[in-house]
User: Fold this.
Amino acid sequence: MSTDAPNHPSPAVPPRPAITGTGLTRLAATVERLSLEVREAHAMADGRALVEMAKGVLVERLGCGPAEAARQLELLADQAGIGRLELAADVVNQASRDRFAEVAGELLAPPPADATAGSGRSAVVRLRTAESGALAAGDTQAVAESLLEHALAPLGATAVAIWSAAMDASLTLRGSAGFPVEEAKRWRYVPPGISTPARRALTERTTVWIPELTESGLPSVGHHDLHGARVAAPAESGGRVVGVLEICWPEPQPPQPPQIRRQVEALAELCAHTLESTPGAEPDADGPVADELVDLADVLLDPAFVLRPHLSSGGELLDFRIHHVNNRFVDLAGRPRSSVTGMLLLEAYPLAADEGDLFDKVEHVHATGEPFRSERMALTALVEQVPLSVTAGVGITRHGDSVLVVWRVEDETTRLANLLHHAQRLGRIGGFEEDVIGGRITWNSQLFALYGLDPTDDPVPLAELAGHCHPDDTATITRFLRAVLHHRRPDSTSFRFQRHDGIVRHIRVVAEPVLAGDRLLAVRGAYQDVSAQHWTEVALSATRDQLAHTEQQAAEQSRLALQLQRAIMPLTQPSIDAFGLQIAVRYRPAEQEHLVGGDWYDAVVLPSKQILLSVGDITGHGIKGATGMVVLRNALRGLAATGAGPAQLLCWLNLVAHHLTDNILATAVCALYDPNTRALRWARAGHPPPVLVRDGLARALDNRRGVMLGAISEADYEEEELVLGDDDTLLLYTDGLIERRDADLDECLDWLLTAASGFEGSLERRLDHLLDRSPADTDDDTCIVGVRLA
Assistant:
């Protein structure tokens, strides 16, 4: 009885082609026949390798020789009624207790009714056969072929690629199977920064499942022919992603069960072992790489230390050991360099373990090879149990298996040097920086002189600038501060600066926010004394006088428009409570007087005992917008006395806007509430839809058809009816409440629905809540009419 080959049926292979014909036909048939024989030989060799592994386990456990182990394996297989290859896989699983053994336990458990085909004992044999073939392979190419033939082809996969990750996070195709030779050559190297499935698995450090490659938009090897499902699993060893296993299916695949996902992760671990043990793997940093990294750290002009991974007995990353610190290193806690060297990172700096802090960044760089750089990062150490934090620029890079951390603390000298740089860039005289988080304000000496203060005095915060300017320039300073601190965009303005000693100077101020994502960290800027330019401009007084006269006329018109608007549209009015319907109104005019618009609202009880509700918005600003608003608002009141419905009222109001006014264009919502039936009929003319809040959830009412008023001479409007329930709240508003320059109207409406949902409180408080938290940045008028049925 032979002990070299497993006694199980040979895998089915295609029939060998007959050698017929002449010339190239015979040669092609011969090549195909030899290729089949080579594949059969590899399959048999992988099976024999698995049997030999099992025999080795029996030799160690039974204390017998190889021949006795072979006989015992044969005897046990006959008694169990299974093939010798299946028994060998069981023996190896019981002995190894590795990831493959865990997967085998899942596969051999009783499968659910809808279990995936291919689970069970045959899958365990395939996994162990693939493992034995990979361990016996001489290179990564052979490993890829073994994985595809034994473990992945039965799952429907048709191609596999094994990528190795370099220190710069680039990817090299170390082995592949199922792809054309030219395609594999074309993808032999992927530079850093190219987005592929393997790149995502490397940087995200998780298995990436893509149901259909064409829909993901990610290119990869073979994506022109194999555009079905893809999976990319990181091959991790000792806390470092050494490569990626990528598997390809020709067709889209449904979500895979946990057993298949465990198999893929186990195969990725096998690839990690292969990539580390085959020629071409990255050199270990214990040798020349570590020495060169230490030399590099010592010549740096900034503090730096070299970290080495600290692994558990099972190969898991626990911490990083401080292998070396350079002579520029200064410990935050005041410890000498010799006491820090050799310590674990979390022992030396336990607060570095906070989420998103230094340890997370080091661990990610070590795992993926992606370098990390931050201009402003908080470094914290414990000094006698008291946290001490400094802000520093930090850079982290991986070299082999080691990590180099370099930082530069932002001290007072560095901060002033940065201020000088920004001063030169902005062309200023006095520079400043305000730390919004810490509240620290830094001025240079020129700015103290400009303010007429002693260098020992406290700097003046930017928010208090209005208290040092001429009263006529208060509005200018208010707009400037709103742009920088509220809208977080760079801005500049000129104003008359009044010092405490009575001297008045003409100043230009420039400021820009420093952001980290959406978070405001600081404000930097400069003051420039432009008094000389101002007095030079006085020579052009004649032209300026004429300009001032024109501006005065415009200001008078703006003030007149504002007075007219406020006379008809007060900012607030007492709540109306009629027939059980509570009505509240809020109105906020434009911040800039010359932008006074034509927003209007109305809420009135008609002779029919119905309640008319309306909001509208006139295009344009100033006198024209204000007078147009008066015309349409009063016209709607008069037309509503006829008893017509909202759709008819808008038809008539459109005729007024088109024929009886000076080219007025407007949007509006008109609604009539009947207290007897609780029915509210409404129609709209190009206006944002009303919002209904019911049971704590807000939704926009269905958009009814209707063009804006005055656009065409004849227009029809659709009418909708809504029955209000107890505690229902209806909101009518103008676009000044929600509109933002950086978002479309649907996104703005989503904010309103979110803000209106779940609010508890009176109707008055609800309107104040919406008005105070409005994200609108168009400086437009805002009207809100709230209706609540008690």
